[in-house]
Design a protein that fits this description.
Elements lengths: L1 H11 L2 H9 L7 H17 L6 H13 L7 E5 L5 H13 L3 E5 L31 H11 L5 E5 L2 H4 L7 E6 L4 H11 L3 E9 L5 H7 L2 H7 L16 E4 L7 H11 L1
Parallel strand pairs: 1-2, 1-4, 2-3, 4-5
Antiparallel strand pairs: 5-6
Helix pairs in contact: 2-3, 2-4, 3-5, 4-5, 5-6, 8-9
Length: 262
């Protein structure tokens, strides 16, 4: 098993991401704990359909582990499909002593008329009603078997129906929602709850319509009453992320946190 894992790391180019996670200096987790996390990530990958690269989910996991324990808040995932990413993030959430709140319709992508045609690399893109569907029981069973379901709370429904009723502070958010309209809704309701220094990831940085939302100055100023944050990886990678600035937060700590994320 170990030989197969090492072969996969070399073949997929994931070796540096794994090494980075193993070297991450966290306040609570020992090196052995991080080795166990990596092993669990690959166990999940082999058993649940995952629509992300391991290096991408590791970036979110590192953000969870690196968040200072004294910073209050939960981890949020919006869009979970079959629960592969959920199971992986739940492993980090448990290690960090955080709760993971999972928002999804559990009925796949909603009906939409968004004119997606190509991603940033020229590949064809189309999202139809019901795509990437994972039922609530299926997701819960997957996370129970391969992750840490005891730290998870599942919230079923369309984002525009559920997120307005959510009001807990958030330290890390991970969006994988595909649609620009869903991205806009998630940012509208999650960003104001993001703690100072908190990180918001989007797995949809390869989609031009989603990037338009992140780059829309009027949206940030009009809906969120703030300036648009710096979006790392914008236009170059599928995973993009931004950090919520706060002048009263420890600037040195935040800089080190961002450097760990790469």
């Amino acid at each position: 098993m170990a030989i197969l894992l090492i072969y996969r790391l070399f073949r997929t180019g994931e070796l540096f991401s794994v090494i980075s996670l193993l070297r991450t200096a966290t306040p609570k987790e020992s090196f052995l704990c991080r080795v166990r996390i990596v092993a669990q990530l690959y166990r999940i990958t082999y058993n649940i359909p995952c629509f992300h690269a391991q290096s991408e989910i590791i970036a979110a996991i590192k953000a969870v582990l690196l968040t200072p324990p004294e910073l209050e808040g939960v981890v949020v995932e919006a869009g979970c499909c079959k629960g592969g990413g959920t199971a992986k993030i739940s492993v980090a959430a448990k290690a960090a002593g955080r709760e993971l709140i999972v928002f999804d319709s559990f009925e796949g992508i909603p009906d939409n008329s968004e004119p997606h045609e190509k991603n940033i690399w020229g590949g064809r893109v189309k999202f139809s009603k019901g795509d990437y569907c994972g039922g609530l029981q299926e997701v819960s069973d997957n996370v129970t078997k391969f992750g840490n379901v005891e730290v998870c709370q599942f919230v079923k429904g369309l984002f525009e129906k559920t997120l307005p009723h959510f009001g807990r502070p958030v330290v890390v958010a991970y969006l994988d929602v595909d649609l620009a309209s869903s991205t806009r809704t998630c940012l509208k309701y999650i960003w104001p709850l993001l703690a100072p220094g908190g990180i918001l990831f989007s797995q949809d940085g390869h989609l031009p319509l989603v990037l338009d939302v992140f780059n829309d100055e009027e949206f940030w100023r009009g809906e969120l009453k703030t300036s648009r944050p710096r979006v790392h990886g914008c236009g170059t990678s599928q995973l993009i992320w931004c950090r919520k600035e706060d002048v009263h937060h420890n600037a040195r700590s935040l800089l080190q946190h961002a450097q760990h994320l790469g």
